[in-house]
Amino acid sequence: xxxxxxxxxxxxxxxxxxxxxxxxxxxxxxxxxxxxxxxxxxxxxxxxxxxxxxxxxxxxxxxxxxxxxxxxxxxxxxxxxxxxxxxxxxxxxxxxxxxxxxxxxxxxxxxxxxxxxxxxxxxxxxxxxxxxxxxxxxxxxxxxxxxxxxxxxxxxxxxxxxxxxxxxxxxxxxxxxxxxxxxxxxxxxxxxxxxxxxxxxxxxxxxxxxxxxxxxxxxxxxxxxxxxxxxxxxxxxxxxxxxxxxxxxxxxxxxxxxxxxxxxxxxxxxxxxxxxxxxxxxxxxxx
Length: 287
Ligand SMILES: O=P(O)(O)OC[C@H]1O[C@H](O[C@H]2O[C@H](CO)[C@@H](O)[C@H](O)[C@H]2O)[C@H](O)[C@@H](O)[C@@H]1O
What we know:
Blueprint: H1 9-12, H2 18-28, E1 33-37, H3 57-66, E2 72-76, H4 81-88, E3 99-103, E4 108-111, E5 116-118, H5 126-140, E6 146-149, E7 154-157, H6 164-181, E8 185-189, E9 192-196, H7 202-213, E10 217-222, H8 228-239, E11 244-249, E12 263-265, H9 267-286
Parallel strand pairs: 1-2, 1-10, 2-3, 10-11, 11-12
Antiparallel strand pairs: 3-4, 4-5, 6-7, 7-9, 8-9
Helix pairs in contact: 3-9, 5-6, 7-8
Bound molecules: ligand L263DTV3.
The site of the ligand O=P(O)(O)OC[C@H]1O[C@H](O[C@H]2O[C@H](CO)[C@@H](O)[C@H](O)[C@H]2O)[C@H](O)[C@@H](O)[C@@H]1O has 24 residues, from strand 7 and strand 9.
């Protein structure tokens, strides 16, 4: 039996603070612990075309290892649940039965145990929103601006725009007006503005999963503004006695999470390295 010694905090690069106790709690009780991760920018490197995104190969390997050790591994994403499962190859992971995907900020779900998707019907008004957004993008006419149809939401992307500054100046306020007119909300992200129905966020999605699974300790990692409600939820859960560690996947595009994080990784490759460290330590303790 291996000694249950405290984790080497220097190796895990955990800032002094509540993340330290959370890491110990996860290592001591992995079966009742949750790992929640965002998809794009945290597991999957940011690329020009959303439909070609994949999980970093080392991230996929680490997820595979962790899904055998932790009670719950959840991908909590703005992506449709089906897209995350397919792009991430999640159904093929060894511990897939312990994985959950909460897609479209918690509106959709995939359960690895049953392989079933829960996808509510598209919200009222989405066809009109799509039409108005398409007309706006056509009228603005900036090459490289693209529309992502997420069936219950629409993403306007300008990562590949010929003139990203002109694109944001021409699009953002008018896209917000379209959202307001149809009682939709907006979700700003990395070179994207999403128009989506209100009422769900990653914090709510996380809270529901914690309650459902009886989670006793957690780790959550994200990279963008849409992850902040999950950060808030981790802080709220700490006050309720559930320790939580926050990982930020840092990028030059977004620094809103950095000061709040217990661990800062530089993009999905470093997130993957950190997840492997966690898997190594869990394997060592299980040996
Ligand atoms: O919650 P997430 O898993 O982080 O998803 C947020 C949005 O990510 C995607 O867009 C981002 O990644 C693309 C691929 O790397 C990139 O081209 C784009 O610029 C990024 O904003 C995705 O397309 C959206 O649907 C997600 O809501």
